[in-house]
Amino acid sequence: MTTFAQHAEQLSTTTLLRFATAGSVDDGKSTLVGRLLHDSKSVLTDQLEAVEHASRNRGQEAPDLALLTDGLRAEREQGITIDVAYRYFATPRRRFILADTPGHVQYTRNMVTGASTAELAVVLVDARNGVVEQTRRHAAVAALLRVPHVVLAVNKMDLVDYAEPVFAAIAEEFTAYAASLGVPEITAIPISALAGDNVVEPSAHMDWYGGPTVLEHLETVPVSHDLTACHARFPVQYVIRPQTAEHPDYRGYAGQIAAGAFRVGEAVTVLPSGRTSTIAGIDALGESVDIAWAPQSVTIRLADDIDVSRGDLIAPADDAPAVTQDVEATVCHVADQPLTVGQRVLLKHTTRTVKAIVKDIPSRLTLDDLSQHPAPGRLVANDIGRVVVRTAEPLALDTYADSRRTGSFLLIDPADGTTLTAGMAGEAFAAAAAAAGEEATDDDAEWDF
User: Fold this and answer.
1) Would you say 22 and 122 are in contact if contact means Cβ atoms under 8 Å apart?
2) Is the dihedral angle over the CA atoms 163, 165, 170, 171 positive or is it negative?
3) Which among 96, 244, 321, 367 would be 20 to 30 A from 86, CA to CA?
4) What is the per-residue pLDDT across 176-198, written as a single tens digit (0 to 9) for each?
5) How many angstroms separate the CA atoms of 200 and 37, rounded?
């Protein structure tokens, strides 16, 4: 019988990489994705036949591989990407979840959505145009979202005669800019998505380049699975009390481990109450185990009968996050309706949703030059800025730099449940945090702060 540890070891031999593509309009993102899927033999025969048929109808001799990802009718008619397209594929070395994001400025929020869970971002640049405003914008978003690996894919090298100086100049400019934002690792690769150069197979036209192809880099880039170094966090999703003859006293707390690892016998704190206990047992896949780690879904049993409910957070007693009602964060506003100072919202953090008020919007970020526009009063769709939010109940919130899972949150319209804003707690670009929030006013009384 396969043990739990052996099963985990088998999964680790084919690790999962989540990555996103980004770039300006017509830089060839969808073509790159289509080429990657086609040349890695990840396209089904009927899918390829449908693309060939659609391409012939448009008067194209060769199949337009961009149609493998651009599935909306408006995308095909305009030849652009509008919504995030997710694709799943695998090679013998690794499994992939790919998010192909739009290039238009007005779809910046879509890139935030696609890159929010990515471990790598592929930023495309047209070799003829070099680094443009949208390139810098996408690099800034990747830095804000703390994407650990960024690939600069200098596309359409076939249109500049595969010239090494063109590639070198673009790579130097982009690397300097991204490094100034705090991007930890940048890899530049010259490609032609249309011709297939350096996408899956090495290019015969660029013998001056000795680095990996795009697929080789995706297969070999290190993806950290040393979860013991992470802050262990377990948001409670459901309380299990069967109260049956077989299990008369069973009380378990079910959910998905957000980060780190938990062990039987470990001292833990339940937040926001602050009550402490020890882990009496961990149930996973119908079996009792001694240890469990992210992103496993498990049931944790505690030694003490304390009040734990959905939305509570279980963390190691010696490594628990601070509990606060004043949240300072960098946010990307995704709704068409603006976010304004004084607006009442719901804040969803892991499995906990609480009432909140937007106390202040100290600044809006100008992504073109990273300058701060002070006191804008509101944020509109695709804006990125700083906010101060006061919650009705305490939250156990990490900074986004420490944990992308437990440092992120959503602001929701309480009237209709619409997602308004995606938030990242703590500092942006490792800059100093904004000043502390203001005192609560009488306007808060309705929300029982």
Assistant:
1) yes
2) positive
3) 367
4) 999 888 888 999 999 998 888 99
5) 9
The sign of the CA dihedral 390, 391, 396, 400 is: negative
DSSP letters, 77-145, are: HHTS--S-EEEEEE-SS-EEEEEE---SGGGHHHHHHHHTT-SEEEEEEETTT-S-HHHHHHHHHHHHT
The mean predicted confidence, pLDDT, of the chain is 83
Contact 28, 186 (CB under 8 A): no
Burial of 227 (0-12, 13-18, 19+ CB in 10 A): middle
Q: Whose CA is closest to 118, among 99, 135, 136?
A: 99
| Amino acid code (one letter) for 120 | L
- The H-or-E segment that residue 331 falls in is strand 323-333
* d(C-alpha 349, C-alpha 325), whole Å: 12
Residue 123: exposure state from Cβ atoms within 10 A (0-12, 13-18, ≥19): buried
Residue 151 bridge partners (DSSP): 122, 187
Q: Determine what percent of the chain is predicted with pLDDT higher than 90.
A: 53
Window from 197-206, 226-235, 348-357, 419-428 with minimum mean pLDDT: 226-235
Taking residues 227-241, report their average pLDDT.
85
